[in-house]
Amino acid sequence: MQDISSMKRSDFYYELPPELIAQHPIEPRNASRLMVIDREDGKCIHDHFYNLCNYLRKGDLLVMNDSRVIPARIYGKREDTGSFIEFLLLEQKGNDEWEILCRPGKKAKIGAKFIFGDGLIKAEITDILDDGNRIAKFLVSKGNIYSALDEIGQMPLPPYITEKLEDKERYQTVYSDKLGSAAAPTAGLHFTKQMLSELEQQGINTAYVTLHVGLGTFRPVKEDRVLDHKMHSEHYEIPERTAELINQTKQNGGRVIAVGTTSCRTLEAAAQKYGGIVPCEDRTDIFIYPGCRFRVIDGLITNFHLPESTLIMLVSAFLGYEETMKAYKTAVEERYRFFSFGDAMFIAVRTKDDNKK
Questions:
Q1: Predicted pLDDT of residue 95
Q2: DSSP 89
Q3: How confident is the model at residue 235 (pLDDT cuts 50, 70, 90)?
């Protein structure tokens, strides 16, 4: 592979037929397909997610992001003119203030006031940030901002999903718990509660971290040179119990498997800052790309990501650049479903004791 300092965004481009972009979640959740790749020999197996247990072994630890998506897309009108406005709440900045994306932006000048849900939510623009995002101060007439969003808000589905989502819970993992994300940690969407219970019965452990998926989900890589890209900052937390399980798993020779790129970023950011996994609450703007050294994870469960995105760069760092681009080419040829509601990939080193298909 070429030196990362010379790698371009275009090096991570691949051709994707539009019909392979999954527009709706599959039923049941774990019926999605699963591509299993051995990091050591590159062997590729095509299976289904409900057979994930065949590629795990007793003592493995799945680390999952329990962040819950806020139904943060709201539609309203400008108070004085009645003209249309759309807000997407990204991150809470104070008791009543949030950083938001809005359109059309020209209507959202400082001091502009807006009404949503027949007055359930009112908002005033208090600041315009350098990147064009706004800070808005909210007033809720009943309950709090979260209950109001639950009543009138819509899930902030990515722009490549054009079909309406009938059930909001299908854009949540079954273990989601802590409100705060602007997008789902999609690798976890494949798990069912029954599957998690069965994995536990087989001696496969689970632990949870929290990383609230924020603005970066909506920000493409614009710089031609990979190293010129600046990551967004996100809040994360590693509970004491999770830190204990990770360290015990390592000591016992088990594998720590990140469910999703957000879990991976959380663990690797903490290890980079603290020299290992400890209970902590912090923010990170870690950018993982080919050449980065992984300190914690031994395996990664992830979906198939957008061309030229930081997520495919992270996968390339773990699996290897050539191997990743080859896997994506294979996924297109085998008609896998891509992106948020698409199929999954499991990358890890298998042993002689693992399933041989």
A1: 82
A2: E
A3: very high
The DSSP bridge partners found for residue 332 are: none
Q: How many CA atoms lie within 13 A of 222 on its CB side?
A: 5
DSSP 295: S
Domains plus CATH for the chain?
A: 4-69+167-348 (3.40.1780.10), 73-152 (2.40.10.240)
Q: Which of 12, 313, 29, 327 is nearest to 169 (CA)?
A: 29
Q: Give the integer Cα–Cα distance in Å for 268 and 288.
A: 9
Which amino acid is it at 234?
A: E
| CA–CA gap between residue 300 and residue 208 (Å, rounded) | 15
For residues 188-212, b (16+ Cβ closer than 10 Å) or e, as one string?
bbbbeeebbeebeeeebbbbbbbbb
Q: How confident is the model at residue 214 (pLDDT cuts 50, 70, 90)?
A: confident
What confidence category does residue 4 fall into, taking pLDDT thresholds of 50, 70 and 90? confident
Q: At what angle do helices 310-319 and 261-274 cross, to 10 degrees?
A: 70
Whole-model pTM: value is: 0.92
The amino acid occupying position 96 is D
Question: DSSP of 149-216, one letter per residue?
Answer: HHHH-B----TT--SPPS-GGGGS-TT--EEEESS--GGGGG--HHHHHHHHHTT-EEEEEEE---GG
User: What element of type H or E holds 327?
Assistant: helix 321-333
Q: What is the pLDDT of residues 118-132, one digit of tens each?
A: 999 999 999 999 889
